[in-house]
Amino acid sequence: MWGRRRGRRGAGRGAEELRALRREREAALRKARREEQLVSKRLLREDSAAEEGGQDGADAVPDPLSEDEVLELLRAVQRGSEDRKGSLSRLRRALQNEDTQQKFVRLDGSMRTLTGLFTSSLADMQLEAARCLHELSHSSDPTVAEACLPVTSYLLTYLSGHSVEFTELCLYTLGNLVVESEAVRKQLLPQGVIPVLASCIQSPHEAVLEGVGYVLSQLLQAKESPVEIIPQVLDSVLPQHMLRLVCFSLKAGLGAAVEFAWCLHYIVCRHKSNTVLLGLGAVPTLTSLLLHLASEIPQDAPEGLELLVCPVLRCLSNLLAETGCQVRDERLLIALFLLLQCFLQQHPFLVQECLWLLNNLTADSPFLCSALLSLDLLPALLQLLQCSQMASVLVLTVLCNIAEKGPFQCQRLLQQPILPLLLPILALPDPEALGQCLELLHLLFLHCPQAAADFTRQGGHQALEQHQNTPELQERAQALLDMVRQPLGAPSPCHPTLPAFS
Amino acid sequence: MAALPLPPGLRLRLREGIPQDTARELLWEPPQLPAQPLPPFTFAPRRLRLGPQHPLLEDGDVHRHLYLQGVLTSLEEVSERPNVPKHTSCPAEQGPSVPMEVSVETAEQFQLDPVETGPGEDMEIPQPAASPGPSLPEKRLYRSRIPSTICFGQGATRGFKGPRKKV
After folding, report:
1. How far apart are CA A259 and CA A248, in angstroms?
2. What is the average per-residue pLDDT within A410-439?
3. Is the pLDDT of residue B133 over 90?
4. Nearest to A329 by CA among B6, B18, B4, B47
5. Is the pLDDT assigned to residue B21 strictly greater than 70?
6. Of A236, A304, A402, A439, which shows the fewest CB atoms inside 10 Å?
7. Which spans in chain B are helix H?
8. Whether A211 contacts A260, CB under 8 Å
């Protein structure tokens, strides 16, 4: 799939229509996720244009056939004629239509015939039959996909075969069937799907690797995976290979790296104690990967790199949350901000992912808090306050992490125009951002009393008074008002007009 | 939004040093115990552990699934001349900014004790998703159009269609 572009010859779908379609899909996916039913399948499809001689419209999904036409296709395939391969190809093309799929699986003997061809000793028949099964596996109609269940044991067997293209097809077909139901998985697991995948992951072929990653990612998202699947996976050689394959180079292997990164994320966020991955050096490995990516990617990040960066960030964040280990490499801060700069325009969702990691890095590390300041990354961090509601809450949290470390850090913070940036937040209706803002102000005033006076001068008093009647905010707002009303004592080291000392 | 105001020379700083120096990267230190927050203030720095259903992960998950479904694509028109390999940069997305209604959930999640957000909760139950929308017409580009710098492995280019709405 990697690097694929959609081509449109002549009058195809315009950009606006594609955007509308994408928005529709996005809305559906969000809804599915909130209902905990987020599932997608993948489809491999051969270049139909090459087959059809490049006619316009050859790339569209074919129209549904009538029952009789489907029956005719099946008969043609069942006959041992010379053009059996041709008939099978025509069947495969017809099966791109879901309606035709449904008719086909209902025909008596259809799946038996297809299975027979799939297990044929003739390689090209076998491949074409595999393509038919693949189309069926992709159906959103469970009865169609379930019709493929009898072939799953063959699919597993053929994963140890030699043909890359055939293996790849089998993998994606399996991956699609895996999400159909727990019953499918219950069948596959005792048949040894995990050991087979552990063997396939040692293949030198990138297409196979990406397919392995896909199957694994589907297995790992299953609801029973923490109990039935993850322990088996962690017990195998899969984890060490996944970590190896996630560290791709920009020249090759991105597709597979993406799949395994998501697999690692699914494991880490579902598994209670990630000692296996930690023991394999997941944190230094993934840290090195981020450093490498941040230092090597061009300003216009290649399409799809965000699909790798996202799960890697998540793994690191969750692994750091689990362990007490401290990261003392400030280059990771640099990497995070370079990645933010790279992806900010095209993929703003990465902002919250980066900030989550930044929180986990800075929460209990005075070293990294100071490094963030001395690397002059604070202006960039403050700019992220404007990204989204979630981003501003996270930025405020990171600022609190820094301020909490003491007067020195507060003084450095206040060297930036931070108070004017906080005032507008106090005017927003968002209670979560408001709460963090009040916490930050408290820390700043606590360590730098002069800041309270500056805040008052900038109209902070009125901004705080607005919240004296908000239940979850009023105590803190009142406490801050009391702080700003206190008379100034002797000038503190936090006076912003004093020269900075290091 | 404008580009980030980063200081110059960061990339160079990144390349200096020894990437595989694990001794430099990780030190086992006991986590610092923060001072107790003064009431009514409650902030204490805390590493966050997020489970699979957390709202913060929604945008990224959706993006991942759009990719699986083959919806992520360059919105720029591919050149009509098949011999010109087209390098297209990623166009601006519609930008799924976090909807406001997430904020309340997020607030609750961020207040949770880290242990409570560990795995074992909020398990996903992947049943086939109902997804409206017709499938996109599939077209695979000729291999000659694919820029040689982009590797996609051994063979088939994948076409995609997403799951249809179930009847």
Report:
1. 12
2. 94
3. no
4. B18
5. no
6. A236
7. 10-15, 22-25, 58-68, 102-111
8. no
* Range of weakest confidence among A40-49, A82-91, A338-347: A40-49
The single-letter DSSP state of residue B120 is T
Chain B residues touching A4 at Cβ < 8 A: 73, 140-141, 146, 152, 157-158
Cβ under 8 Å to A: B residues 63-92 = 63-78, 80, 86, 88-92
Mean pLDDT of the residues in chain B: 55
Give the pair of three-digit tokens for residue A464: 């705080």
Which one of A32, A344, A442 has the shortest CB-CB distance to B1? A344
Comparing C-alpha atoms, which of A183, A253, A242 is closest to residue A217?
A242
**Which of B5, B13, B47 is closest, CB to CB, to A360?**
B47
At what angle are helices A306-322 and A254-270 packed, to 10 degrees? 30
> Which of left, alpha, beta for B142 (phi over 0: left; psi -120 to 50: alpha)?
beta
Closest chain A C-alpha to B32 CA, distance in angstroms: 6
ipTM of the complex: 0.91
User: Which of A23, A39, A464 has the most B C-beta neighbours within 10 Å, making it the best mutation to test the interface with B?
Assistant: A39
The pLDDT of residue B105: 35
- Which of A360-364, B13-17, B76-80, B156-160 is predicted most confidently? A360-364
Q: Nearest by CB to A386, which of B1, B50, B62? A: B1
SS3 B145: helix
**What's the gap between Cα A199 and its chain centre?**
25
- Nearest chain A residue (CA) to B15: A295
Class of the domain covering A376-491: mainly alpha
Q: How far is CA A318 from CA A173, A213, A283, A322, A360, in A?
A: 31, 21, 10, 6, 8
Residues 126-155 of chain B with CB under 8 A from chain A are 126-142, 145-147, 149-155
> Is the link from the previous residue into B40 a cis peptide, with omega within 30 of 0?
yes
Check A4 against B137: CB less than 8 A apart: no
Residues in CB range of B63: below 8 A, 6 or more apart: A306, A307, A310, A347, A349, B72
Contact residues, chain A, for B48 at CB < 8 Å: 317, 321, 356, 359-360
**Measured between alpha carbons, how far is residue A59 from residues A204, A397, A491, B73, B137 in Å?**
32, 50, 75, 16, 6
Give residue B80's pLDDT.
30
Helix (H) or strand (E) holding A130: helix A123-137
What's the predicted TM-score (pTM) here?
0.81
Residue identified by tokens 């009514």 is: B40
Mean pLDDT of B13-38: 59
Residues of B in contact with A226 (CB under 8 A): 119-120, 123
- pLDDT bracket for residue B40 (50, 70, 90): very high
Amino acid symbol at A24: E
Q: CB atoms < 10 A from the CB of B141, how many?
A: 19
Which pLDDT score, from 0 to 100, does residue A87 have? 93
User: Contact at 8 Å (CB) between A136 and A99?
Assistant: no
Burial level of A290, CB count in 10 A (0-12/13-18/19+)?
buried
Mean pLDDT, to the nearest integer, of B144-151?
34
The pLDDT value recorded for residue B36 is 78
> Residue B3: its pLDDT value, please?
84
pLDDT tens-digit readout, A147-185: 998 899 999 999 988 899 999 999 999 999 999 888 889
